[in-house]
Amino acid sequence: MKKTASPLDGSTIAKITLARILEMPLEKYIRFMEKKTNGWHPQGGDNHRDLRLPVYGRVVVDASRGRLEFQSADERLVRQYPDDGTVVPKLINTRNELSLHVVRGLLEVQRAFWESGRASDIKPLTMKQFSAMFPHRRLDPSRLSRLVSTLSLQTHNQEIVILRKLFASPRIHFAHRIKEIVAESDAVLTDIEIQDILRKEYRVALSARTICNCRKALGIPNFRERSAAYYPEHISFGNYTALFSRQMRNIPAEAGIYELSASAQVSYPHGASQVIYIGASKNLQRRIASYGSGEIKNRRISDFAHSGTLRLSVRFHLTHRHLEVEKELLTAFKQHYGELPRGNARGGSE
């Protein structure tokens, strides 16, 4: 019997539509499913787990059996919808099928990371390599790239990981190792000292220039900046993004803390810093985008933004403990510099 070709295999429109569905943020995708399926949900059992969307699910480490288990946040994200003869259910089923396929593959290939929770255990991996290791007839590097940018998993230690981060280049892999060395050291290390530790303890030979580039890739401050840092080592701020720039669109819609900085130093009782505000939000993308609306409610931040001479930038750290970590950073900043950042009138979120 001849197998009937799927409309997804030949229709250009269907392929374009699938690409758009694959890159939908999870909350938008769920609304799309509800609209297109009239709110249909699978029968039997709990439809929703006790997880915070837009997390796709969580990874549970079963040490006694030596295995990893994936638990979806919402059963609709992994089920197959009834075929009503139209292309939409096929597209939804394809995203659900590919999502589950990708998660299972990443649990296998990045097993060391899921078990330890240490970013330094993330193996170097490209989209092309993954597609070859875990083939699927509707999965290619382009579709994979769209999909993993929309999915986050909660680890066994309650951290949230965007799946895109599990596709690390060798430089990012070494950068995580360098970050770990910096965090575990009681002393503030120079790049030459880091180079020596990598060679002696890990048998990795990197030039001082490569170590510098690796640091910059993860936004790890240089020796001088780390000597003056107010925040604890476990906080991993990313690179700076200019406020009002197009790059702000790449900020994830996840919970976390963020830091606004000016292009010039600001005087504080115990020293100078470019930091003018520390904040937290359950949706960093929406919160930070609000600063580009032209109507900044915080007058102190607005004065900096509209000074005409200063440029503002932002960097962030993802964490579901955003409110707790925000308080920790504000306390640390005040202890280090003698007062709160200029934009933090009351020491809390806007």
Protein traits:
350 residues; alpha+beta; Arc Repressor Mutant, subunit A; GIY-YIG endonuclease; 4-stranded mixed beta sheet; 4-stranded antiparallel beta sheet; 14 helices; 8 strands; 40% helix; globular
How would you concisely characterize the structure shown here?
This protein has helices at 7-10, 12-22, 26-36, 87-109, 111-116, 127-133, 141-148, 170-184, 191-201, 208-217, 223-227, 284-289, 299-305, 322-337; strands at residues 57-62, 67-72, 152-154, 160-162, 241-242, 256-268, 271-281, 312-318.
Topology of helices and strands:
Layout: H1 7-10, H2 12-22, H3 26-36, E1 57-62, E2 67-72, H4 87-109, H5 111-116, H6 127-133, H7 141-148, E3 152-154, E4 160-162, H8 170-184, H9 191-201, H10 208-217, H11 223-227, E5 241-242, E6 256-268, E7 271-281, H12 284-289, H13 299-305, E8 312-318, H14 322-337
Main beta-sheet strand count, sense and barrel state: 4 strands, mixed
Low-confidence spans: 42-52
Give the helix/strand class.
alpha+beta
Per DSSP E runs of 2 or more residues, the count of β-strands stands at 8
Kindly report the average pLDDT value: 85
Compute the separation of the termini in Å. Answer: 64 Å
Strand content: 5-15%
Describe the global form.
Answer: globular
The string of secondary-structure elements, in order, is HHHEEHHHHEEHHHHEEEHHEH
The strand line-up of the biggest sheet is 2-1-3-4
The value of Rg in angstroms is 23 Å
